[in-house]
Amino acid sequence: MDNRWRDADAAGFADDPLQLRVYTSRLLGQDPDLVLHGGGNTSVKIEQRNFFGETESLLYVKGSGWDLATIEAAGFPAVKMDVLLKMAQLKALSDSDMVRLQRTAMLDPAAPNPSVEAILHALIPFTFVDHTHADAVVTLSNTPQGEQVLRELYGERMLIFPYVMPGFVLARDIYRRTRDIDWSRYDGIILLHHGVFSFADDARQSYERMIDIVASAEACIRERGGMLEVDVSTERPGTEPDPAVLADIRRQVSRLKGRASLCRLAQDPLSLSFSRHDELDRIAAQGPLTPDHVIRTKRIPAILDQEPGAALEDFAAAYRRYFEKNSTAGLTCLDPAPCWAVWPGTGTLKFGTTVSDLVIIDDINRHTMKSILQAEQMGGWCALPEKDIFELEYWELEQAKLKKGQQSAGLQGKIALVTGAASGIGKACVEALLAQGAVVAALDVNAAITTLFTQEAVLGRVCDVTDSAQIQSALRDLVRRFGGLDILVSNAGTFPPSARIEELDAEQWERSMAINLTSHQRLLSACIPFLRLGIDPAVVFIASKNVPAPGPGASGYSVAKAGMTQLARVAALELAGDGIRVNILHPDAVFDTAIWTDEVLEKRARHYGISVQEYKSKNLLKTEIRSQDVADLACALAGPLFARTTGAQIPVDGGNDRVI
Ligand code: ZN
After folding, report:
1. 393 alpha carbon – ligand 1 mean position (Å)
2. Exactly one of 186, 322, 557, 615 is catalytic; which is it?
3. What is the three-class DSSP state of 328?
4. pLDDT, tens digit, 9 for 90 and up, residues 528-540
5. Which terminus of the chain, N or C, has less C-beta within 10 A?
6. 291 CA distance to ligand 1 centroid (A)?
7. Which domains does the chain have, with CATH numbers?
8. Bridge-partner residues for 61, per DSSP?
């Protein structure tokens, strides 16, 4: 446990308690062994003059939606202390009423909701209060004699309380237990199976107490034989899964979830070591590290110890039973899909609708697996009973969020592949798909593709689409990274130099056929097995106006694009039975691409004796056609708007009397 306090960094905030609060909150938030992704909360009590010149006692406490790692002063709504203290004395209060009451006592009604632990922070009579879900403390707590071990470890310095549901119930419980105590005798509170509080009138002291408390727990784990770092150095590599099996798992999880889900395979030494544990069924089936992880990960993972489809069905059936058994009236059952799975001998899988879900679930289950393996070395892993986990999973505040409905972008959870993605229409398609919430494999022969997109949702791969082996390898990477394929935008192309038929260079002709036609057949054929396992799968071919309205001097290009169009029409016939839609776009005069430099545009415009602007909008609607316009239409074709359309050819050309 590192003490990250730096005098030089803190010096600038010495007179400003709120800024100091921001500083030490970030120190806590940046250590994943203390809190993960929005977990934990902190506060500072400040006396402040209000508009009427009266002095008020305020609690600045972490606001919901903020992460301690990156929190700012605006992330600490101020709540009136007297109201919070009065609330602690109420006999009962629903958590939604608690949130409502807290909002009425806020200094700024536009600030975020205060943490649900605000009352508890108010009860602790010190200026600074820090709360984390430190791995080491919770791990000790989750062992057979956890409470006794912690009591022996901390002696009289710490208050140790049994687990109760966070929110008002916990605040009320702490109020009752601490009414008559002498707080000056204590450095902190341990909430069994949940986390730690430290406190002091000085920001540094409160922070350093937290570090000391957690460091002692880490030392205790070492003494008791729970290796702090699981020995993963000798781990054998995992079995390489068949990408089709992986895509099928992802399809079944999406079906259980009721919406497209991503899936990511992890085969690092920790995941492998966990997946090979002799008693995996027992250790993985007991519950999370700390109860609030349940919102992200569900109580337990699926274990794929039989045929994956059957294992997922079993998980869903068991989840429904768990709901029936623990549910009270009026609760809405969540989807029965797992959030993660352990695949014996192969690794772990994470399921989520966004890349950030995958990252959060991955971080949480990595800490969970490590703690479980440590606890197993200290007598066994004892998570909270399922009733307590259920209570948090179906907490009224979480259910309220469900009822509000989740807003999601149109293609969220969808997996796309775009070729010719480094420039022009291909690049615009990647951007449009991302904007709609999809993740994308962006393929291009240009090496710049690997650094062009920096988003986690893009897999940029160098790929020569005329080489089947390179296509196969890119598809394998895509499936490992995101779980499958739903949308193919077959776009890669080349425009050969203009030449009349009798002057055609044989090599140029062959090259146009190879890139503009044959590569599309190869790509489609490699993608079909994955599209069959996709969610509402769709293919969009980027053809050309030259198909319905060819021009002289471009036979190499037009013939290949006409062949591609025919390929797409046959594909629409062949793949309809699998629910795969295949549609075709015929763009024309898209000038914001690499081949159309200002120079070339001016030359062409002069040739016609018109201005560049007139040249760019030389169509019936007198409108300019940008790559983005083509990309937006490609996205629409891949989305629900065109769910009942296949085999269509749509011009994107501003209107052309030869096409109409
Ligand atoms: Zn907590």
Report:
1. 14
2. 557
3. coil
4. 999 999 999 999 9
5. C
6. 9
7. 7-223 (3.40.225.10), 243-404 (3.40.225.10), 415-595+626-651 (3.40.50.720)
8. 43
